[in-house]
Write a structure and sequence with these properties.
The protein has four helices and five strands; from the N terminus they run αβαβαβαββ. It is of the alpha/beta class.
Length: 141
């Protein structure tokens, strides 16, 4: 992780800790940089969460990420995914049904509301996701 990432990730964690929606489960790539970023962000939130490190998130395409999410237990309402571009940026655009994000930067946080009753339904969502929040290190507070 470069110095910018080392500085940005805790700041984004502090911002996340002040938001109303907190992750209950974190799906994180096994890549060292993704794990380091996740830990620096998550160290700032007081809420308990489960974390799973998944090799399949490493450079995953949007459909692969959706497949991973579709297998998450419905006991969790809020999922955080820590992975890689271009897959995460493409996924965010796919979920919205339009091109909205040119690039989600390192430690960027995008929060969506999904019109589904079960994570298994995410692969065939009937409606686009609703963007609730988009925050990133260079955004004004």
């Amino acid at each position: 992780m470069n110095q910018r990432g080392k500085n940005s990730a805790p700041i984004m964690g502090q911002r996340l800790s002040k938001k109303s929606i907190q992750p209950q489960i974190v799906l994180c790539s096994t890549a060292a940089r993704a794990q380091a970023t996740a830990q620096k962000v998550l160290d700032q939130i007081p809420q308990k969460y489960e974390i799973q490190f998944l090799k399949d998130l490493y450079h995953a395409y949007p459909d692969e990420i959706l497949n991973i999410v579709s297998k998450v237990s419905d006991n969790y309402q809020n999922i955080m995914i820590v992975g890689h571009n271009p897959g995460l940026t493409e996924l965010a655009n796919d979920l919205m049904g339009e091109y909205h994000f040119p690039n989600i930067p390192t430690a960027g946080l995008v929060t969506f509301e999904l019109d589904i009753d079960s994570w298994s339904a995410i692969v065939d969502m009937p409606n686009p996701a609703i963007l609730l929040d988009y925050d990133y290190p260079k955004k004004s507070k």
